[in-house]
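Quick one:
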Amino acid sequence: MKIKSLIVLCLIVILCSCVQDPTSPEKISYDGQKMTEQLTQRKFDTSKAVEEMTRERTETRIPFTMNYSECLGKPVIELDSDRHIYVMVDSGCTRNWYFSSFIEKTNLSDDEFMRIIIQDLRKNEPEISNEHPSDEEFSCFLKNEWANYNLNYLAKLYINGISLRYDSVQKQSYDGVLGSDYLMNYDRVTFDYINNYMILNDEKLDGTEIPFIQTANSEILINFTYNGQQELAMIDTGNYCFTPRHNIGDGKQDYDIDDYSTYGLTYNDDVPVTPRIMQTYDNIQIGGVTYSNIKGAYSTIEGSGFGKGAQLHMMKLNNLGNVFFYDHIIQFDFVDKLFIIK
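Output:
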């Protein structure tokens, strides 16, 4: 009888040891879709993307998808239905950008594109044009500058009244980004994550109002609490998950909202590399909503998809991505400087 009891006890110990502690670190897959599904605890289906983006729309009520390939968990809209140009709406990005795939969809070769840009600059930007009398040299100069995120506005174009700058570096599955420069054209912008619609110049949302700080770099920052400790964070529709700052909850957040000297797209100095794991976070309160069992990973994990400047940025500033809003409607009220969640 004693031997039987001992065997049963051993089996219980073995079984218990196989059950993972839900608060312990978990490894993150290197597969993009699996990683997104791990961190959001949701499933995505890329076959639904086009159908979701082409639903009924008006000028101010625009459908988006969260199922766009290699951009899962982020709102992507169809900007131009004739050319099938798709852009991600990213409140964490300042500018509006278009990528080389955008140019390809206009059926322009690289040479044709550069010729059009240079012709326009010869006509409208005489000062810089005169410094580069040779078209060939001018083209090389511009490409080098754009590669370092300088003078990108010189290749600015307009589509549906929206101004976008050229990003020659990014190679994405989608064709561009609409950032806060776009959102701030409207008094209020609502993201209805329940029905997947973006509503421009919407009526004020009836929900929990949280004052936001808008920095000189157009970041939208709010205060939230983690385990009762106040923290500062960016609201980022261009991030599908929770990216906590290093040492979140220690009461020593050191973030200067006026200093962007090291967070640029061209920052390339060393950034610490942390293990490729995610943690579980409980007791996160945003306005009147409390969240538990939220998965989060540092921006600095091994194989991070963030640029070095962004990694350094998010080491100090929490980033609240869409994982917090999938079951909600949120609104950026630029008139009263409020972030509203319902």
